[in-house]
Write a structure and sequence with these properties.
Layout: H1 2-8, E1 26-28, E2 31-33, E3 39-43, H2 50-62, E4 67-69, H3 87-100, E5 103-107, H4 114-120, E6 123-126, H5 134-142, E7 147-150, H6 157-169, E8 175-179, H7 195-204, E9 209-211, H8 213-217, H9 223-233, E10 237-241, H10 259-280, H11 287-298
Parallel strand pairs: 3-4, 3-10, 4-5, 5-6, 6-7, 7-8, 8-9, 9-10
Antiparallel strand pairs: 1-2
Bound molecules: phosphoenolpyruvate (PEP) and manganese (II) ion (MN).
Length: 300
């Protein structure tokens, strides 16, 4: 079966697992994405003010996030919506890193901005709307920074792998894939969360895969459930929107968690992450024994 999937995606051999390469681990500051730890990236959709960003950085760090997200260059669906603070926002992100110790992920929208964004960010985010902007992918690859590649909202898994392959072909193997929901006939939610794509990507590709339950659902009350699904599907981490006052957010407030909501989500993920750790050890410990051990631990 595995061989068939490899054939299905044979066009992008560089991103596929093979006998010698099963996992890519992306080092960020003093930790890794795609290693044994589940890594949560959290923060506002847009960087708005110094106090908004600093309080969010402190809150998400306390709840267990390792990476602060925040857009300084914003790809908005409306040309009249807030477009981001640009350089001023990048400087605030760098200051937040200094104060909190969190790594920074932020979006870069144009190839000309890559050197500037790479100066301030630990990871360059390529947004859904840019996934097929090949000159941007090339420039991001050449920056030498890890690249968080979001799946286009109308892109297939094969399209996503092609874009990842493009970054690898330009000499940068540090790519993190991100499932952020796709457009389907379902309109109740902002997008349709394709959890199966996470499972499939983890099966065929050696690259780390994370999930963005915020953009995938568009509704903050669905974010914790989608986060749990992402863990069960095999994701290596999450990208979550968090804001001190979501109803006042300059962008994506409806899908942003407040600090208490994020803290609760992280605490509720704990048992799922404990199971994940145990099933990761399944090569040396049979799966049902691992699950049994978890429940023994849970009931004391
Ligand atoms: C974002 O992360 O704020 C964003 C714009 O995401 P996407 O590119 O997935 O729409
Ligand atoms: Mn957003």
């Amino acid at each position: 079966m595995r061989v068939r999937w490899q054939e299905r995606f044979a066009e992008t051999p560089g991103v596929l697992k093979d006998a010698t390469h099963q996992h890519t681990v992306v080092p960020v500051l003093d930790f890794e994405v795609g290693g044994s730890d589940f890594v949560t990236m959290a923060g506002p959709c847009s960087v708005e003010t110094e106090s908004q960003l600093m309080t969010t950085a402190e809150a998400v760090r306390r709840s267990g996030a390792r990476i602060l997200r925040g857009g300084a260059f914003k790809p908005r669906s409306s040309p009249y919506a807030f477009q981001g603070l640009g350089l001023e926002g990048l400087k605030m992100l760098a200051h937040a890193r200094e104060e909190s110790g969190l790594a920074i992920v932020t979006e870069v929208m144009s190839e000309e901005d890559v050197p500037l964004v790479a100066e301030y960010a630990d990871i360059l985010q390529i947004g859904s709307r840019s996934m097929e902007n090949y000159s941007l992918l090339e420039a991001a690859a050449h920056s030498g920074r890890p690249v968080l590649l979001k799946r286009g909202m109308m892109a297939t898994v094969a399209d996503l792998l092609r874009s990842a392959q493009c970054i690898l072909d330009h000499g940068n193997p540090q790519v993190i894939l991100c499932e952020r929901g796709i457009r389907t006939f379902e309109t109740a939610m902002r997008n349709t969360f394709d959890a199966a794509a996470i499972a499939l990507l983890k099966q065929v590709s050696h690259l780390p895969v994370i999930a963005d339950p915020s953009h995938a659902s568009g509704h903050r009350d669905l974010v914790p459930a989608l986060a749990r699904i992402a863990v069960a599907a095999g994701a290596d981490g999450l990208l979550v929107e968090v804001h001190p006052n979501p109803d006042k957010a300059w962008s994506d407030g409806e899908q942003s968690l407040d600090f208490a909501g994020f803290d609760e989500m992280m605490a509720d993920l704990d048992p799922y992450l404990a199971l994940r750790r145990m099933t990761q050890r399944e090569r040396v410990q049979p799966r049902c024994e691992a699950v049994g051990a978890y429940f023994m631990e849970a009931v004391g």
